Amino acid sequence: MSVTTSFPAPVLRAAGDSALIVELGDGIAQDLNAAVHRLDRRIADAGLPGIVETVPTYRSILVQFDPAVMAAEPLGQALLDLAAELTQAAAEPQLRWIVPVCFGGAHGEDLDDVARRSGLSAEEVVRLHCTADYRVYMLGFSPGFAYLGGLPEVLHQPRRENPRMVTPAGSVMQGGAQAAISPIAMPSGWHLLGRTPAKTFDLKREPPFLLAPGDRIRFTAISAAEFDRLEGLSGYLPDCETVTAPAALLQGAAA
Amino acid sequence: MTSHLRVVAAGPSSTLQDRGRIGYQRYGVSVAGAADPLLHAVANALVGNRPGEGAVEFTLAGDSIVVEGGPVRIAVAADAELTVDGEPVPAWTSLRLTDGQTLRIGALRSGMRGYWAVESGFALQPVLGSVATHIRSRMGGLDGSALKAGDRLPLALDQAADRGERCFDPSLLPARGGRLRVMLGPQQDYFTPAGIEAFLEEDYTVSHEADRMGCRLDGPVIEHARGFNITSDGIPLGAVQVPGTGRPIVLLADRQTTGGYPKIACVVGPDVAALAQMRPGERLRFTPVDATEAGRIQARHREMVDGLPALLQSAGGFALYDSGRLLGFNLIGGAVTGWD
Predict the structure, then answer these.
(1) CA-CA 20 to 30 A from B211: which of A66, A187, B147, B235?
(2) ipTM above 0.85?
(3) Cα of A158 to nearest chain B Cα, Å
């Protein structure tokens, strides 16, 4: 049986002449984000004319449309109707990726600083990262960049005052209340904890993007030698298991 | 042998662009694509291509390229001086160049960006459905980077047929002033009434911090009402984001897909291209329009792009015909047949 969500009424926001934003709420919360991705699938299934692409984020969806095919007003109404009918999904199995990370040293230059600011040892920080149950909230910013929720609160700290111009491909990082896996070299103000040999974005692979919103992530610590070995394997993919969504996720939206 | 164009010297920032990478923003992939789609479409129309074919966008000054193989039909849509093997030739006109001829595209006399296209485009493998170059993520183009001397661009068409050339009268392009039309939102509620008034009533100036990703403006500070951090959401083309400094940044073709600064307004599509053509120091002012008016502006722009082929004239037709420079080129180039 499905239940209606108790989120505040969805809000429609104009975003220029060819885009609308449907906002289901604010902030970073698992049930809110799960509802966003359910609505995104509903929009895709509805096959509304004129939609060019959608960009689901933490709490909203940017809907890019072709105004020559569909005007903003009827499209907006159709989107609000879909959002209003949004129901709780049945327990969907999720993928959990076991992502190997070589923490600290040259692979994660900021690990010691993060530990010092948290009042913990570097080993404790690594242990916390490896026991946390991370969830992919969205992909954005750069190709395949995965925003992860679930960073233990003791590790929350502001981003670097001076962003680095380049962070290495495969960086596992944290910033604010979030963690991230950054598959390509990018400028970033997040704290570098380590690197993974797993290519979460690879144009030579089909599909090129490994992670999807809703996927879960468990980090596991590896040595520099193991990093080199795995990085040298062609077509290496991290281990993956199927998990059932925790009950809290199902009840969260209705609570 | 496949015909090529070899880059002898590249302009300051020349990249292959099409209409952009559509459908991958949800994976964090930037759209990219031509910063001025209308001018890009003019270059393509001149050589008989569809509007979205891959063409080179150059910035402030163009490239020097030599034909290897050919003949190659090429056209430059830009207010710039061109030479073929040192002899002046006109812009806004298709040219048929033969093996060994060098086209040199000089500095732009106005605007920031010009385009050159070849008939049938380049024989390059699309990346995620597009050849558009996005330098920050090293995607598209030849190797995900700007053109550089020594690059060899393979052509989809080995030999361009001998037929009448086409030209375009650039005075037909819509006038672009310093007024950029915007629709307020999506986060205008993050700004005080005074902040919105400053944004809509005062002049802004294009700063030197401007590239294909975004254009930072100098001018009155736009006051935030409740901080300058939002939960990161999607960024449409032309979004005007206002970071903590209160100075707006208009996001262009190479923009990141998501961001956490509030967006006071979005520039209407065709006016985003107008901004992308403005140089540092140029002044502009934002004018609010509603969705209906924005739709009309978009529709007019679309009619213009769709109607481009009908606006072209035979290059033998009017003013160009009695151009001594043009006749000179024909004799020197030995490609007289192209101009009949």
Answers:
(1) A66
(2) yes
(3) 13
